Amino acid sequence: MIAIINTGCANINSVRFAFERLGQTPEVITSPEQLKNFERAILPGVGHASVAMKRLVEEGWQQAINDYQRPLMGICLGMQLLCDSTEEGNVQCLGKIPGHVKALDVGSLTSPHMGWNNLTVNREHALTKGLDANKQVYFVHSFAHTVNDATLVSGEYGQKFSAIVANDNYAGMQFHPERSAKVGTRLLQNFLDWQL
């Protein structure tokens, strides 16, 4: 059973449909008390970090996520919210994945980073199964987690940044697996198969 956390800061339908295509029946939950009843959870996110983090704290999600002992994955902004802090609004985040989120230094490239990009596997993990250098995924972001020991997979756009991170039972994907065709489908299946 998969929970998709609805904090009011995400377009959750595309994530729900992606899991349904894998034969799952995810449930969108709106109350932190529901989280403990699920085997896996997704924290999606679109929008501004400070607004999203404020909602997580005010609505009781911070404690529920902190207490959760099973696989939980953030997508896009959801991944960033699992980290220690973000420069976007200069806010403290959930602190479940070590590292800080900073504005991408894109140089002469356009920002936000939007479109398909390659991945580099930094460290083998259950979540990276089936990935190679020829695979591309779909990004939309202007902030990113800096590469550190939690980084499983990195991307590059003006600078290197974390594309997939993991720490304990928490993981994150900076890109949108639900919009990343066969590669994204494989990565979501990897999350379903991930055993702690």
TrEMBL record:
Family matches, as PROSITE patterns: GATASE_TYPE_1
Single GO biological process annotation from the record: L-histidine biosynthetic process
UniProt cross-references to Gene3D superfamilies, sorted A to Z: 3.40.50.880
InterPro entries: Class_I_gatase-like (IPR029062), GATASE (IPR017926), Imidazole-glycPsynth_HisH (IPR010139)
Keyword terms, alphabetized: Amino-acid biosynthesis, Cytoplasm, Glutamine amidotransferase, Histidine biosynthesis, Hydrolase, Lyase
CDD domains linked to this entry: GATase1_IGP_Synthase (cd01748)
Gene Ontology MF terms: glutaminase activity; imidazoleglycerol-phosphate synthase activity; lyase activity
Keyword Lyase recorded: yes
EC number: 4.3.2.10, 3.5.1.2
Active site (UniProt): 76 (nucleophile), 176, 178
Domain Glutamine amidotransferase: 24-192
Compartments, as annotated in UniProt: Cytoplasm
Coarse class of the protein's main subcellular location: cytoplasm
Ranges that cross the membrane: none
Gene Ontology CC: one annotated term: cytoplasm
Function in brief: IGPS catalyzes the conversion of PRFAR and glutamine to IGP, AICAR and glutamate. The HisH subunit catalyzes the hydrolysis of glutamine to glutamate and ammonia as part of the synthesis of IGP and AICAR. The resulting ammonia molecule is channeled to the active site of HisF.
Subunit structure comment from the entry: Heterodimer of HisH and HisF.
Protein name: Imidazole glycerol phosphate synthase subunit HisH
Organism: Pseudoalteromonas arctica
Taxonomic lineage from the root: Bacteria, Pseudomonadati, Pseudomonadota, Gammaproteobacteria, Alteromonadales
Gene name in the database record: hisH
